[in-house]
Design brief:
The chain has twelve helices and ten strands. It is α/β, with parallel strands linked by helices and about 400 residues long. It folds into three domains: about 240 residues, Rossmann fold; about 90 residues, no CATH class; about 70 residues. It is elongated and about 120 Å long. The chain starts with 10 loop residues before the first strand and ends with a helix. InterPro entries: Caspase-like_dom_sf, Pept_C14_caspase. It comes from Kibdelosporangium banguiense. Pfam families: Peptidase_C14. This is Peptidase C14 caspase domain-containing protein.
């Protein structure tokens, strides 16, 4: 059954070398982006969801010893999934043993055994891990630029060099530049990342398993007439997923629902702030009861989604019910906020009315008369005292208004 890694029990080590000391090895600037972007997917909630500390990035490491230490540490800590990724130049020794070496920053093409990461050592470190599932992704040529003349050997023969029993191996077995100039990612990793972020619309599963990813990457590479990747799979690692299928209709519905829950949470926070403001400014504002629904609905979605890492999503009907609940909660919180805003607006309208009739009283030269003046002071004090007693203030403004209009009629 398809599943995502268990985040707390899984480890990833991403190794990439784009800058080399040896002039025989051309720079690969896209490798740095490969590391950044792949780490982003593996640690994203849409992706594998690994904690940041469980996804280690080794960019342009200088020597094989340091790389080996990091791999051994990750291999020892991983209980569920161990994923190792390498991007850079892959070099074959072609010395009778025909061993594969992974180039590092200080690698010398004429001294591979002392300066490059020997694949056989990496293989053993992975084999020694007690992780339930092991994944190796190699985005490299199996020969450097200076060794292109040896690449007539079949790709499957070369792939046998990276076979690890019980481990899923994805390899870009190409014999030319890894990425066109100016491209953000190498060809192979770029296609892998595109699928991880965009998903596969035609795939019925809610998770993007390694088999699905390999199938789709290979198809995309073939469509573009790019070098065809290879894979070896000896166990259930084929069912391991690295991300949710973002193009799956139910997954898109969940993402949309989460966005609407964020909107609801923001609206409810605004309502709570408006309630606090109204309670501060208005005595007994008579606000309807209001409680935040977003946390409850989030928990409800989390319960419904708890089996998503195993490829099981809530039904369309369950999501529709939750969407309707969000609609109802949005309507209620907006209506409640309007009531709170209305109480403050009512006070402000009374203030405006009081000022208008006070201006009239000044023009009529009656503002200083005892009755008019006393009524104005009473209304003013009520309106500018917090919290404002709207009932008493309304009666006081009405009384002041009558006093002014009555005196105006008598003066005519």
């Amino acid at each position: 059954m398809a599943r995502l890694p268990e985040p707390g029990r899984s480890r990833a080590v991403l190794i990439g070398t784009g800058d080399y000391q040896d002039p025989a090895l051309e720079p690969l600037p896209a490798v740095a982006n490969n590391l950044t972007d792949l780490a982003g997917v593996l640690t994203a909630q849409q992706g594998a969801g690994l904690p940041g500390g469980h996804c280690e990035v080794l960019r342009d490491p200088p020597a094989q010893a340091a790389v080996g230490d990091h791999i051994v540490a990750a291999a020892g800590a991983a209980e569920d999934v161990l994923l190792v990724y390498y991007s850079g130049h892959g070099l074959m020794s072609w010395d009778g043993n025909n061993e594969l070496f992974l180039a590092l920053r200080d690698t010398k093409t004429k001294q591979l055994r002392t300066s490059a990461l020997r694949y056989a050592d990496l293989r053993q470190d992975i084999l020694d891990s007690s992780a339930k599932t092991k994944v190796l992704i190699l985005d490299c040529c199996f020969a450097g630029r200076t060794l292109d003349h040896t690449m007539s050997e079949p790709a499957d023969t070369l792939l046998s060099e990276v076979d690890i029993a019980g481990t899923y191996v994805l390899a870009a077995t190409e014999n030319r530049a890894l990425a066109p100039p100016g491209w953000r990612n190498t060809l192979f990793t770029g296609e892998l990342l595109r699928l991880l972020w965009e998903g596969v619309a035609a795939e019925p599963g809610v998770l993007l398993t390694l088999d699905v990813l390999f199938r789709e990457v290979r198809a995309a590479m073939s469509r573009h007439n790019w070098p065809e990747p290879r894979s070896n799979n000896r166990n259930s690692a084929a069912h391991l997923a690295l991300a949710y299928n973002a193009s799956h209709e139910l997954r898109k519905a969940i993402i949309a629902l989460k966005a609407r829950l964020d909107e609801l949470a923001a609206e409810e926070t605004l309502t709570e702030q408006t309630y606090a403001l109204a309670s501060d400014k208005i005595a007994e504002p008579n606000l309807p009861p209001h409680s935040a629904a977003a946390p409850i609905l989030r928990e409800r979605l989390a319960v419904a989604e708890q089996y998503a890492p195993q490829g099981r999503l809530p039904s369309a009907a369950a999501l529709a019910d939750m969407s309707a609940a969000v609609d109802d909660a949005l309507s209620k919180t907006r209506d409640a906020r309007e009531v709170a805003i209305g109480s403050i607006d009512r006070r402000d309208r009374l203030r405006g009315r009081l000022k208008g009739y006070q201006a009239m009283a000044v023009r009529l030269r009656i503002a200083e008369e005892a009755e008019v003046g006393q009524r104005y002071v009473l209304a003013r004090d009520l309106l500018w005292t917090q919290p404002c007693d709207l009932g008493a203030a309304t009666r006081a403004v009405n009384a002041f208004q009558r006093a002014v209009t009555d005196r105006r009629e008598k003066l005519r």
